[in-house]
Specification:
Layout: H1 3-39, H2 47-54, H3 60-94, H4 106-121, H5 126-149, H6 157-179, H7 183-194, H8 202-221, H9 223-229, H10 233-238, H11 243-265, H12 271-283, H13 287-312, H14 320-337
Main location: membrane
Subcellular location: Cell membrane
Membrane topology: Multi-pass membrane protein
């Protein structure tokens, strides 16, 4: 073996070792966030009491904590993983480092569709909300991409970001206009629009699982295609990728993830923007690693911000959507200031 080949093999082995190390760290961080989520809140409960409550061998308080906090933690993990994974896929499909379900208006479009279903069609089931959110997310994503593709240069990152931001403002305003005259739904919808996982139950989680599973499968299977798309459409086609189908399949997975997460938790922002950037700094731009890492760290981030939301306003609590905005904005600014994002 030549010196060049040996050097390349050693570099590849070091890179793989580093990624596996970060994978272990990500799993530990997620597990730690889950433990904190179940044990901390408006009232702290000892972990041994929680274990006893789960086995039914202790008092009513511990059982109540388990019944409330465990599904809340599961919901936060699923929603965070879905949004982190969807953000990474959207950035790959559009080749836009600013792409995010929030910035591109996808979450706002999903929320508008749910509100329309509630206000105009009497929709009252979570399954109905999910289908409406998926339809709204898909239509909004297609609209933003079409608007961003108009003119010289096609769908550039700047035009997509501007089109998405304008669409988000328009859909949010229209949603507000629908809600204002409807006092019967205004309170619940406005609280849902902030975004949160409080009140989650396994009855809420169960209808979301098929959509999240299909969306995650489509997204993860698109890793190779996204690696090729990162080279440009012409290069991807020359290497055997069917560019239009690759984009459509990956985008469908992201839409399913965004729709299900938005229907269950409301339009949460910044998770899909910050997490993929952080993962790139840890494991590089290979989507075979980036996508699963984005899911793991997205889950950890949303669980952690939910714990923080409970602790900041004791004995009350904040909605997690407020905390993700405060946490996400400075973290994203810090990442941008690290010049390594030029690798995008």
């Amino acid at each position: 073996m030549s010196d060049i080949a040996l050097s390349a093999a050693m570099t590849l082995a070091r890179s793989r070792h580093r990624r596996l190390l970060w994978l272990g760290v990500a799993v530990l961080v997620l597990a730690g966030a889950g433990v904190l989520s179940v044990s901390l809140g408006t009232r702290d409960v000892d972990w041994r009491d929680i274990v006893a409550g789960a086995t039914g061998t202790t008092d009513t308080l511990a059982r109540a904590v388990v019944a409330v906090r465990v599904p809340r933690t599961v919901m936060a993990a699923l929603a965070g993983a879905a949004l982190g994974l969807a953000g990474a896929v959207m950035q790959g499909v559009t080749r836009n480092p600013l792409a995010d379900p929030g910035i591109l208006g996808v979450n706002a479009g999903a929320a508008m569709a749910v509100v329309i279903g509630m206000a105009w069609f009497g929709m009252a089931t979570l399954t109905g909300y999910i289908w409406a959110a998926i339809a709204g997310a898909a239509l909004t994503a297609a609209f933003v991409y079409a608007i961003g593709s108009v003119g010289r240069g096609g769908a550039t990152p700047l035009k997509l970001a501007l089109a998405g931001t304008a669409t988000m403002v328009a859909t949010s305003s229209f949603t507000t206009a629908i809600i204002l005259p409807r006092n019967d739904i205004a309170g619940g919808v406005q609280a849902w629009q902030v975004g949160g996982v409080g009140g989650a139950s396994f009855d809420v989680i169960a209808p979301c699982l098929p959509f999240l599973a299909v969306g995650a499968a489509l997204s993860l299977m698109s890793a190779r295609s996204l690696n090729l798309l990162a080279l440009g459409d012409d290069a991807a086609a020359a290497l055997g990728a069917r560019v239009a189908w690759a984009r459509a399949g990956a985008a469908l997975g992201a839409v399913l993830l965004c729709g299900a997460a938005t229907a269950a938790c409301g339009p949460l922002i910044f998770v899909g923007l910050v997490v993929p950037h952080l993962c790139r700094l840890l494991v590089g731009a290979d989507y075979r690693w980036l996508l699963p890492f984005s899911a793991l760290l997205g889950a950890a981030l949303l669980i952690g911000t939910d714990v923080l939301a409970r602790l900041l306003a004791r004995p009350s609590e904040l909605d997690v959507g407020i905390v993700t905005a405060f946490v996400g904005a400075p973290v994203f600014i810090w990442i941008v200031r690290q010049r390594r994002v030029r690798e995008l």
